[in-house]
Amino acid sequence: MRVRGYRLFELLAWPAVVWCALEVAIRTGTGTWEGLPATLLLGACAAGTITAGRMRQAAIAVSNRE
């Protein structure tokens, strides 16, 4: 059950990462800098969620083997 929960969090975080990457590219291309720090922070949080979820899934897999 826990592994499925981490997968769900990762599934929800991926669209945020993609959206933030697109928004950063558009803001950079158009020279619109307002809101860029918030977008970068949101993208970093989403990427951190994906990373932490994968690390936790790996740790659970190791503990289940023992």
From the spread of the alpha carbons, the general shape counts as: rod-shaped
Helix content: over 70%
Structural class: mainly alpha
- Rg computed from alpha carbons, rounded to a whole number of angstroms: 15 Å
Mean pLDDT: 93
Strand content: under 5%
Q: Please work out how many helical segments DSSP would assign.
A: 2
The secondary-structure element order is HH
Low-confidence stretches: none
Main pleated-sheet profile:
none
- Tell me the number of strands: 0
Terminal-residue CA separation: 18 Å
Produce a short descriptive summary.
The protein has 66 residues and is mainly α.
Draw up the topology in text.
Elements: H1 2-30, H2 36-65
Helix pairs in contact: 1-2
Describe this structure in words.
α1 runs antiparallel to α2 (36-65). The chain is 89% helix and 0% strand. The chain is built from 2 helices and no strands. The radius of gyration is 15 Å and the shape is rod-shaped. It has 66 residues and is mostly helical.
Spell out the key features of this protein:
66 residues, mainly alpha, 89% helix, 0% strand, rod-shaped
